[in-house]
Amino acid sequence: MARSALLNVMVQAAMKAGRSLSRDFGEVQNLQVSMKGPGDYVSQADRKAEEIIFQELSKGRPGYGFLMEERGVVEGDDGQHRWLVDPLDGTTNFLHGLPMFSVSIALERQGQIVAAVIYNPAMDELYTAERGGGAFLNDRRLRVAGRRALSDTVIGTGVPHLGRGHHGKYLVELRNVMAEVSGIRRYGSVALDLAYVAAGRLDGFWEAGLSAWDIAAGILLVREAGGFASDLEGGQDMLETGGICAGNELIHRALLKTVRLPYQPS
Ligand code: IPD
Ligand code: CA
Ligand code: CA
Ligand code: CA
What we know:
This protein is α+β, with helices and mostly antiparallel strands and 266 residues long. Helices cover 34% and strands 27% of the residues.
């Protein structure tokens, strides 16, 4: 498969960061770890991977701006482009020796997501998409799953870290969805969750409380695989609100409706 020059720059950055993560994954017990907030860890591995991506992308496309999880905002000179980077999505998994983690890189041009790369080094799975050009897993073109009834679906979610006494809204959503679907999964890397929706492995996904770097690449993958993504109100403010619901057209609609139902004893 011939990739564009832009995707090549992104793939090279993601795979180089992925190799660094793989090395650190092998000796995770030696890493320095600190806490940014309840349940929110950051390690040397996150920072090293982010530095690699920053260097590679700056070299490949000088002047573009950045929004990176650990480093924050780096203003660019060109005023049109912004990279959204999560160097290690699934830090908690990584630190527990669970291989469900990924590198996520998206490019925005004039506020529109135009290119995406998600890489899981442990499984050597590389997901790529460019606006209008389709979504791919390695060389294989992706298509969202075709299931039509919520009762047949396996749905992914993320469990937000809200602190004691603040889980009420999520528990209502979870109960509502559990009552309708055939299975629920919580893998721990939202970038991979969305890549799995694009690949038809998950029929749908929802989560709240996310950041733009978590989901920007995944949103493009889902869309380019023929799927639908919205925020939890049904609008397009996913990056601003941090809420996301995704699936094929029918499952997206049904899941969104179910997530938004009031409490129902089940
Ligand atoms: C986290 C993961 C997780 C999601 C959290 C995210 P991080 O990202 O994507 O699946 O449930 O909300 O913060 O911190 O490991 O990059
Ligand atoms: Ca984090
Ligand atoms: Ca993340
Ligand atoms: Ca991260």
